[in-house]
Amino acid sequence: MKKHIGDIVYEKADAKGLELVGPLWQKLIKHHRVRSRHFQEHFDRMTWEIRKKELLEKSLNGMMLVDLAKDSKTGEIIGYCVSTINEKEHGEIESIFIEDSYRRAGIGDNFIKRA
């Protein structure tokens, strides 16, 4: 069952918020691993600890935003978007994921606008 956009609340976090997105990031990697024909080895080698370290290193010379989407009724984190701005003021969406049952509710659009 798809969720209504009114059921979603958003929270901003800094680099410490990365700890909260690990389980969803694992789902993202699984999603890519199943669908990728060209980068299978990359996804097989990638771990959350490696990716988290990469993101934290990127944030040292710039800024990082960890945006979280939560189900307002359960408090469960159902999506995230990690974005950075480097020392040259170039912004990038580093990682984004939304649980299947919450997709098509405008969460991704909201994440992009907030980033």
Description:
This protein has helices at 18-35, 40-45, 48-60, 107-114, and strands at residues 8-13, 63-71, 77-85, 91-98. A four-stranded antiparallel beta sheet has the order 1-2-3-4, with helices on both faces. With 115 residues, it is α+β, with helices and mostly antiparallel strands. Helices cover 39% and strands 28% of the residues. The longest helix is centred in the first third of the chain and has 18 residues, at 18-35.
Helicity range: 25-40%
| Terminal residue distance | 28 Å
Radius of gyration, whole Å: 14 Å
Number of strands: 4
Unreliable segments (pLDDT under 50, ≥5 consecutive)? none
Question: Main β-sheet, in a few words?
Answer: 4 strands, antiparallel
What structural class do you assign from the helix and strand content?
alpha+beta
Shape category: globular
**How many alpha or pi helices?**
4
Mean pLDDT: 83
Strand order of the largest sheet: 1-2-3-4
In terms of quaternary structure, what is this? single chain
Strand content: 25-35%
Helix/strand order: EHHHEEEH
SSE inventory with pairings:
Elements: E1 8-13, H1 18-35, H2 40-45, H3 48-60, E2 63-71, E3 77-85, E4 91-98, H4 107-114
Give short descriptive properties of this protein.
115 residues, 39% helix, 4 strands, 28% strand, globular
Entry summary:
By secondary structure, the protein is of the alpha+beta class. It is 39% helix and 28% strand.
